[in-house]
Amino acid sequence: MSLQGKCIVVGLGGGIAAFKAVELVRELMRRGAEVRVVMTEAATHFVGPITFAGLTGRPAVTDLWAQDYAGEVHVELGEWADAIVIAPATMNLIARATSGQANDALLATLACARGDVFFVPSMHHRMWSHQATQSNIRTLIDRGALVLGPITGPLANGEIGEGRMMEPEDIADELESRLVHSDDLSGSRILITAGPTHEDLDPIRFLGNRSSGRMGYAIASQAQRRGADVTIVSGPVHLPTPFGVEVVPARSAREMHAAVMSRFEQFDVVIMAAAVADYRPERLEAQKIKKDESLKLELVRNPDILAEVGAKRAQRPSVLVGFALETEDLERSARHKLVRKAADLIVANEASAGLGGDTNRATLIDAAAATRLPQMTKRALANQILDRVRTLLNNPSQRPRREAEHEAPN
Ligand code: CTP
């Protein structure tokens, strides 16, 4: 019940993603928030106010002139809400909000907002990249609004592009990061690698893998919410930057290696959640490879970033966390990895659970014990991992003894 006691207005614009607002309202309520819904007239063509009345137990506000509200409902809701989240925020709604209109219930409520205002855009990718929308979004951000997404993915007409509304659970995570602060990791600096790497073959093609980056990004946003100073070194992903987190892009294993090696000494905790390619093509062809009867690729080893940081002895972070994806003999292989890569904690995933999805099943393995966790959301797993990191940070005696820790300073 992480949003317990928070008052949130969910405001719907008229877009096809309005159906996702139903799940958003449920998710916010599941986390303990009290939710009221305000809809534009257009939104009611996509989803019925009755649905929200049923979910929240309060009528959805659609009309400033309706008889059922005593007093000024927009003033009352603007004052009541700790946050107003506009989802979906259509091109038209964004334009009207930017120009300061207040001619319907949603815009009038926005105009009276006391708390944070979040826009969650959803539209065709050409509407999103339209100069008018981009300039409106910049204006809203300058005025202090927060913009979540959009993400790149399938759009209503089947095209793939940037314009898809963020998923309800991710929106709720972002709201939580902003509205709920826990300080148990405050003062800790955490570096996280996330996502896949792309190893180029020629100017067009690359070798990659199916990692979505969601696990690493979930750890980042939860660590930020818990007060840590967080940087992600990120492979190519289609995920929005979590609120308050610095993202350093890295495409290939070698770029990721360079980004981590030049930074890791500034961090107390390094968590390697990236699915780094073990190999890259020996040659990067300058021109597109032409097809032939067959093609033989020669691959060479990439640097092992985790092992290299683990081997740094004195400069290594206080807590070093690695991931392992195993198809067999999970615990034994992961424990072997813990020792071989000199990590303090290995998050071992079963290959069958997790890759690319929203949930994961993992076993946490450190020098002392192996803890098998049930299937859970990546966000919940992120918090379990961070709980363990905090314990290791606070109890150095639980970390494996290393030569470097016993060396006399010279
Ligand atoms: N890792 C890394 N650099 C690499 C490869 C992996 O930093 N070049 C990190 C990953 O981010 C992950 C951990 O190492 O935290 C485990 O990766 P994995 O590929 O499972 O380890 P390997 O030793 O390559 O496993 P295996 O020997 O089973 O291939």
Q: Could you describe the 3D structure shown?
A:
The chain has 410 residues and is of the alpha/beta class. Helix content is 32%, strand content 22%. The strands form six sheets. It has an eight-stranded mixed sheet, sandwiched between helices. Helix 4 (91-98) packs across helix 7 (131-142) and helix 9 (214-225) packs across helix 13. The chain is globular and about 70 Å long. The protein starts with 6 loop residues before the first strand and ends with a helix. Residues 404-410 have low confidence and may be disordered. Bound molecules: cytidine-5'-triphosphate. Residues 193, 253, 272, 274, 276, 278, 302, 304-306, 322-325, 337 line the site of cytidine-5'-triphosphate.
Essential attributes:
disordered C terminus, 8-stranded mixed beta sheet, 410 residues, 2 domains, binds cytidine-5'-triphosphate, 22% strand, Rossmann fold, single chain, alpha/beta
